[in-house]
Amino acid sequence: MKPDRLILFFILSLFFISASPSIANGGSSEKTIERDIRYGIGKRLEKFDWSISGAGGSPNILSELTWSDISAIEFKATMTVKKEKLYYRGSISSAQINGGDNRDSDYNGDNRTLEFSRSDNSGNKGSLWDLSGGVGQIYRRAGYDYALLGGVSAHNQNFRMTDGFQTLCVSGSPLSCTGSTGPFAGLDSSYQTLWIGPWAGIDFHHLSKDKKLSAFASLEMHLAYYYAVADWNLRNDFKHPKSFEHEAYGYGLIYSMGLNYEVSKTISLGWEFDYKRWQASDGTDRTFHSSGVITTQPLNEVNWGSASLLGSLKYSF
C-alpha cells in the first residue's frame, strides 16, 4: 500500500476513534465525562540505523547508515476521555532536531569487513513527529483504574546530513575514491521515514487518597509498515529528489510513565517519560538511477530507539 493511502487510512481511523465516545453512548451527553489534556515540553534523544546488502546478498552488509546522539526539543499534547466504561486517548508530538552525528560506511566483505568508504557527518538538522489514537474499555477500582485499548499510530523522522567529512576512502573502490580524506562541500542529503500501523496496549492510572497526586503508565505493542525515501544530493548517478526508497514490515514497543500534582481543581503540574523501540527487517531497497534504471537490493534491518523526558501541565475539564 502506498504511503499516501496509508496516511489517508490513518486520518480516517483517527476520525472514527474520536467519534467513538458519542457513538458508543448514542450521542448522549447526560452521563458524566472526565476529560483532560496534558501539554509537555522537554528533551528527546534518538538513535537510528539501517543497512542493505549487495545484489544477491553479497556482501551481507554493503552499506550502513547510523544516526547517533540525536537530540531534539519536543512538544507533546495528550488528551484522554473517560465516559462510563469507554476510554479514549489521543496524542500528537513534534520535535526539532538540534544536535547529532551521522556515519555512512560501505563494505566489500561480509560482516562489515573490507570497508572502503566512511564519512562522518553532521546530523543536527531535521524534525520528528508522532500521531496516535486509541479506544478501549476502562476498569475502575478504588484509587486506580486501568484500560485495555487498541488504535493506530504514525511516526516520522526527517533526518538531514550536512557538513561532510570523508574519514576513509580506499583508492580504486567502487565509488572511485581517490584515497583522499577530509571535509567535502555541498552535502545536504535527506532520509525521511514513516512507520504506520495498529497497536494494542494497556493504560494505568492511580490517584492518592488526598486526590492531589496521580500517577500514570502505559504500554503499547505495535505492528508497522515501514517506508522511507532518500535524496543523496551528491550522487550524480542517482535521481533527485528521490534517489532510493525502503519498504519493510516491523514492530515496536512504546512505554510511558509520569506523575501529576494538582495545584487547583483544573490544573496539575508534573513530568512524563516516554520510551520507544522499533525494528523492521527483511525489506527492499529500490535505487533510482539517473539513467532510468531501477535496481533492487535487500534491506537488512532498520532500528530506531527514542527516549523523552518532558515537563507537563494538565488541564482537566
Give a brief rundown of this model.
The chain has 317 residues and is mainly beta. Helices cover 7% and strands 70% of the residues. Strands 1-2-3-4-5-8-9-10-11-12 form a ten-stranded antiparallel β-barrel.
Number of helices: 1
Can you give the mean pLDDT?
Answer: 91
- N→C terminal distance: 40 Å
Helical/strand content category: mainly beta
> What is the CATH topology?
Lipocalin
- What would you say the CATH architecture is? Beta Barrel
Low-confidence stretches: 15-30
**Mind telling me the CATH class?**
Mainly Beta
CATH superfamily: OMPT-like
Strand residue content: over 45%
Please tell me about this protein's structure:
With 317 residues, this protein is mostly beta strands. It has a single domain (3-316), classed as Lipocalin. The chain has one helix and twelve strands. The protein has one helix at 3-24; strands spanning 33-52, 63-83, 86-109, 113-141, 144-162, 165-169, 182-183, 188-207, 213-231, 244-262, 267-288, 294-316. It has a ten-stranded antiparallel β-barrel with strand order 1-2-3-4-5-8-9-10-11-12. β11 and β12 form a beta hairpin. The longest helix is centred in the N-terminal third of the chain and has 22 residues, at 3-24. The radius of gyration is 23 Å and the shape is elongated. The protein starts with a helix and ends with a strand.
